[in-house]
Amino acid sequence: MNHPITSAAQGNSLTPPTATLFGNSVSKLVEAQPDAQRKRFKDLLMFEERLRWNASMQQSQRRLWMGILALLSLTLMGSGYFLFSSSSTSTSTATTTLQSSNNLALYVFCLASLLLILFFVLGFYRSRLRDPLRFRPSLNKVLKHYCLELGAKNNDLVFSRKIPVAFADSYSQYRDKLRKL
C-alpha cells in the first residue's frame, strides 16, 4: 500500500482511505459523493459501527453473567434440596455413603452460598447485569443533543427531524451499500 505522503510527492493521485479499506467497488461509490459529505459519512459510519459493537458486546456479556448467576442459583438450590431432604436409613453402609454425600452437599451448598453473596456484595449484579440495560437509554440521551438516536432493533443510527431528509437518505444509502460489500 502506498503511503499518502510519498504518493503525493511522486505525483500519484491520492485514493480515498475507504478505497484501501473496502476495495475498488467502494471507491466508485465514494467518488460520487462530495469530499466534505464523504468525510462526514465515513466518520458517522465509524461512530455507528463502534456503538453497534459496544451494544452487542454488552448484551453478550450480560447473557454470560445471567447464565453464571442462574447456574450458581441452581447449584445452591440443588445442593440445599439434597442436603435438607435426605433422610437417614437403617443400614450402616447406606448411612456412611449418605453421610459422605451429605458432607459433599454441605460443602457445595456453603461454596455456592458464599459465591452468590459475593456476587451481589462485590457489585457484579449491578455492573454486569443492571448497567447494560441502561446503556441504550443513556446513550440516546446523549445522542439526542446531536439529533441522533441508536435504533432499538437494528442498532442503526436514526436521525431526528431536524436533520435534512436528503442527508439522512444519502447516508442510509451509503451505509447500506458499504454493508453489502
From TrEMBL:
GO biological process, one term: lipid metabolic process
TM spans (from-to): 64-84, 104-125
Cellular component, GO annotation: cytoplasm; Nem1-Spo7 phosphatase complex; nuclear membrane
Protein keywords: Cytoplasm, Lipid metabolism, Membrane, Nucleus, Transmembrane, Transmembrane helix
Major location category of this protein: cytoplasm
Pfam families: Spo7
Top-level taxon: Eukaryota
Protein name per Swiss-Prot or TrEMBL: Transmembrane protein 188
GO MF term list: protein phosphatase regulator activity
InterPro entries reported for this sequence: NEP1-R1, Spo7
Stated family: Belongs to the CNEP1R1 family.
